[in-house]
Amino acid sequence: MTPDAVAQYLQHNPKFFEDYADMLSGIFVPHPHGGRAISLPERQMLTLREKVRALENALGDLVETGKSNDALAAKMHRLTLALLRLPKESPERIIETLNYHLREDFSIPHTAFRLWGVKGEFMGLDETLNISDELRTLAVSPTSPLKLPYCGPIKGYVQNEVTIGHEVGMWFGESSGHLKSLALMSVYGGSNGGGLLALASEDEHRFYSGMGTIYLERLADLLAAALAHLFPEK
Length: 234
Description:
Blueprint: H1 3-12, H2 16-19, H3 21-25, E1 28-30, E2 37-39, H4 40-84, H5 91-104, E3 110-116, H6 133-140, E4 150-153, E5 158-159, E6 162-163, H7 164-170, E7 181-188, E8 194-201, H8 214-226
Antiparallel strand pairs: 1-2, 3-8, 4-7, 5-6, 7-8
């Protein structure tokens, strides 16, 4: 009889433990952490304690994640209210307010924003300058990787032979040489317009591949709604 056969028999015959209760109390097994041998019931108790400890740790992680999400949701709410209070005729104030909240509330000191395809009266915005045709084309491509936020190293980010990391890094001016990680998201502006919002950090772990991007996507949607009037109607 193999150990697997014994285990299978016990699983299918739970009454065995009732019929041989005295025998169970006399079975001794090695302690899981070495040392003396312990009885089977004591070994079961240790196993249950380990499972409870693992569940407590998992629950603690869930609680911390919930608190973090609540804090992010509150920050997004404050930003939304601030943008709603601004007049649409002042896109400069919308962008200034965005940068202020990202810096002061979200603790993101390095932000950059670029726009294209806006109406003629808004072509004087600083955000409409210094963006290459290659990057603009890539951003609006149906198969663009920027349809979802990119998070990861700022250097070496290349897509379709477009060196995105280098170009976006230049948007941060003198700070570009110190930046390690990047979050880059597309802002929808219609079929012929749009924008790119870049968040950067000196901390290489601030924005990393595989991190959750739901709030970055909501941030891009919020900015797109706030600036929708800058773009020609479809």
